[in-house]
Amino acid sequence: MIVYFxxxxxxxxxxxxxxxxxxVKLVNEIGFASSSVSKIAKEAGISPATIYVxxxxxxxxxxxxxxxxxxxxGRAVHEDFDDSLPIRDILKxxxxxTFDYIARHSEYFQYTEQFSNSPHQxxxxxxxxxxxxxxxxxxxxxxxxxxxxxxxNFDILTAFIFYPIIALSNARVCQDFELNDENIEIAFxxxxxxxxx
Amino acid sequence: MIVYFxxxxxxxxxxxxxxxxxxVKLVNEIGFASSSVSKIAKEAGISPATIYVxxxxxxxxxxxxxxxxxxxxGRAVHEDFDDSLPIRDILKxxxxxTFDYIARHSEYFQYTEQFSNSPHQxxxxxxxxxxxxxxxxxxxxxxxxxxxxxxxNFDILTAFIFYPIIALSNARVCQDFELNDENIEIAFxxxxxxxxx
Amino acid sequence: MIVYFxxxxxxxxxxxxxxxxxxVKLVNEIGFASSSVSKIAKEAGISPATIYVxxxxxxxxxxxxxxxxxxxxGRAVHEDFDDSLPIRDILKxxxxxTFDYIARHSEYFQYTEQFSNSPHQxxxxxxxxxxxxxxxxxxxxxxxxxxxxxxxNFDILTAFIFYPIIALSNARVCQDFELNDENIEIAFxxxxxxxxx
Amino acid sequence: MIVYFxxxxxxxxxxxxxxxxxxVKLVNEIGFASSSVSKIAKEAGISPATIYVxxxxxxxxxxxxxxxxxxxxGRAVHEDFDDSLPIRDILKxxxxxTFDYIARHSEYFQYTEQFSNSPHQxxxxxxxxxxxxxxxxxxxxxxxxxxxxxxxNFDILTAFIFYPIIALSNARVCQDFELNDENIEIAFxxxxxxxxx
DNA sequence: GATGAATGAGTGTTCATTCAT
DNA sequence: CATGAATGAACACTCATTCAT
Lengths: 197, 197, 197, 197
Hints:
The structure is a homotetramer.
Chain A: H1 7-30, H2 37-44, H3 48-54, H4 58-77, H5 87-104, H6 106-116, H7 126-130, H8 134-145, H9 154-161, H10 163-169, H11 181-195
The structure holds a DNA duplex.
């Protein structure tokens, strides 16, 4: 009797990983509209039919890839999260971590940008993603309580401390902006000026 | 004796207009990837073949529609532009005008959001669009000169006074944020705090 | 009162001529299958709709062009036809004239080659064309009567004194064969040896 | 218990064969220009999409079909090839075999005639086809060496011993010529007279 | 679990042709 | 006479997906 300890699962993981990377790569290269199942399969080095072993359909593949990235990003951004620091420092930390993640995974970031403007976006279980970002949210809430941060609608706050990151990271939008520590720090000053009381 | 006020076999503004609206509507409803030429034609009430009378190909239709919207928006945003007002007031005016345009033409705005994350985006003649936004740019430059606005990279400034508008206008991103004058004014306070010296 | 003597007809002729040349050129360049009405019209510098002023439909244009060439060729080949020469000389004359015509109008020749293998070919009034070639035919008949030429089926004779010209003129078929007088003369020797008694 | 002798999801020779025959049949019936992929598929009893499982594109189907026929013909013509016979007999054998092949496969022959006047023709790997006809070529060369055959350009020789076959086999060109052994023999006499010294 | 074969439904685009002007 | 606009029908081809193996 032969016992496979993890080999089947390992095999799976390799293919699924290849599929994930192929999806991201292709969407970045040729766009959402042109990224067909068979092209993704070819890029991943597997048969199109095999995709349906791992995912219900194309949409499932696309959505799962998005969720996977978002979770990844949530985790990366909160690494070494230290609740005991001053609020400004916590936010600055996250600000830098986010830029760092995007810099190191620009393809992932680009993918989410494309995805979040597609209709698939409505299929995402947002709560599942948002929970990865709860810690920051709580910091903002605490800042409001402590009268350090302006007591305004939450969407307004995020529009000024997270959304500009997206703009600044988007090479297409910001062609003059060099993503170095100094510039990122300057930009944070503006973000903080915007939200601080 | 019959008098034709509008010739029946002359390129038809009404049709081109219908095509424009159909394109925007469909892209908003089913997304870029699913908006096929034949669906757009059906929505516009014309034959798919007729599209090729007005546009070189699908991409041309999509790009032209985008450019049209952007120009429209540029014009609308600068209406009643008064260079003699204080810089803060000028920017506040534009801030409101932009929200107003987006509120009245949310489909147009959504279209540009989808478009600007598609690969077609690279085909746009950006200079042609940017010239519509030159006046605001000049105001910012003046603000820097007069030491009213922070002397930082231009991309950073726009990331804080224009990009948040996009976030706040995006119903998907901001579900709690109601787009009324009071909220828009509050948001502008943050924008101004971000960029002012 | 203005009197036009021939201007209308002249105008016609210019367009029809342009159409003829455009058809031949395009068929040679991109083949029968790809030569569309609108491409031909564009090549001729007129509107596709105008073609239907001169021809019933596309097929009519194609067939007429073929017939026109064939008549032209028949005329050219029989120029300076001298019935009083010895039969061998008459045939040799025609042999050379044919090569000469093909050399000077290779596009016309290529067109007929493509056309004669298409199904349109069945629509041609062959009798109308054949009458242009009657003089040669009669020479062959006389040669048979005078026991100078083999008394065999007519198709066999033409297969040996006309068909090889087509082969030899076809650059695709004969890549080594240079079309100079000496070679043409040598080839005629073979043709004559084939049919002579 | 059911036994499958031929797997049902394995690339299917029967289908490819049907595709080959359908292509030839349709091109003969309606011509190259009108033979669309979907018509061919319908004739073969398969889905148009399935064609692309077997061939890269339409051109590939057309070219492959041509090459297939040419190879077939090369093989058939050289069957029972006997190098030891007198040169005249060898050529006469091939002459008859060629007529025989064309008589039995007039559709194939017609297909090649149409194809060789189309622009696809340039895509054929000629060397691959020509190697099937090397034996005859060698016989001609030997005939020249032995001063039995005229020492003239090779293209001229083939224009007189192969090209007339095409003319004579072409029902359109030769309407009076009945393809019986006697007539074929007579025609060979002319061919031989043409090339012999 | 993995896949090649197969396909109906669709893609973007061009077609030959008509028609009002 | 000449044409630009218009189109139904067709084009070559790709799609997401299924299914037998």
